[in-house]
Amino acid sequence: MIRTISFAGHIEEVWATLRAAMARFGFDRLNYTYLPMLQDPQRVSRSLRFTLTSHPNPRVAEVYRSDLLDRSPMRRWAAENVGAISWSRQSDLLRTYDWLDIADELNALLADLGFHAGYTIGFPSSGEGDKGALGLTARADLDQGAVDAIWSQHGPAIEAIAGVAHARMSQMPLDLGHGRLTDRQADILKWIADGKSVQDVAILRGRSVAAIEKQLREARDRLGVETTAQAIARVALLNQLGLPGRGDARA
């Protein structure tokens, strides 16, 4: 299993292996988040985020990617800490963060989404300000007491498998969907990152300077940035900046 994850060539392969592994321990629904650059742990939804979810309820994905859970104590804990925490600690964290005013509303939302029992893992940063977290929701027939018992016996193994999966996925090209570049736009950004000027790229690609500039403008718009330097920085954060002339590096 660890070998399969370590040598996986695509995020989908890592994710499928991780889901199968966690299901063996009683966790049949997972939520994963990776933030290449996290500056504000209290407002995770405003950060550049890559997310995966295996919850069948489509509303989970919508809520998980929105700001509705920014005041979720587990989300904030995972953004600020390393290790695993039981969902039984939620009440304590609500008091710690002085969020008791939202307790009833939050508990109702989580119950409606099916988050009845589980654990959250906060992964260590690589040192570049990035952060990853994994939420593990238990099967419907397991309550929090049963989940805590499972964790007391298998917690280290679960964390090890999850940690390897996170390390592998965070190294792979991340696709945010809404910011997806065309192959041509990605190729041009790679050449610019390699030190070529717009005029150089126009010659190398046999196109006009105006055509290259148009592609760069569209790339900036897709990525939601203002400058080409910001565009290059963003695709680099998403591990999408491959070597020029070597094809598309994205998964």
Q: Would you give an account of this structure?
A:
- The protein has a five-stranded antiparallel β-sheet with strand order 2-1-5-4-3, with helices on both faces.
- With 251 residues, it is an alpha+beta fold.
- It contains eleven helices and five strands; from the N terminus they run ααββααβααββααααα.
- Helix 2 runs antiparallel to helix 7, helix 8 (183-193) crosses helix 11 and helix 10 (209-223) crosses helix 11 (228-237).
- The longest helix is centred in the middle third of the chain and has 26 residues, at 144-169.
- The chain folds into two domains: 2-169, 2-Layer Sandwich (Beta-Lactamase), CATH 3.30.450.80; 183-237, Winged helix-like DNA-binding domain superfamily/Winged helix DNA-binding domain (Arc Repressor Mutant, subunit A), CATH 1.10.10.
Short recap of the structure:
The chain has 251 residues and is of the alpha+beta class. The protein has eleven helices and five strands; from the N terminus they run ααββααβααββααααα. The protein has two domains: 168 residues, Beta-Lactamase, CATH 3.30.450; 55 residues, Orthogonal Bundle (Arc Repressor Mutant, subunit A), CATH 1.10.10.
Write the layout of secondary structure elements.
Elements: H1 2-6, H2 11-24, E1 27-35, E2 50-53, H3 58-64, H4 73-80, E3 83-86, H5 90-96, H6 103-113, E4 118-123, E5 131-138, H7 144-169, H8 183-193, H9 198-205, H10 209-223, H11 228-237
Antiparallel strand pairs: 1-2, 1-5, 3-4, 4-5
Helix pairs in contact: 2-7, 8-10, 8-11, 9-10, 10-11
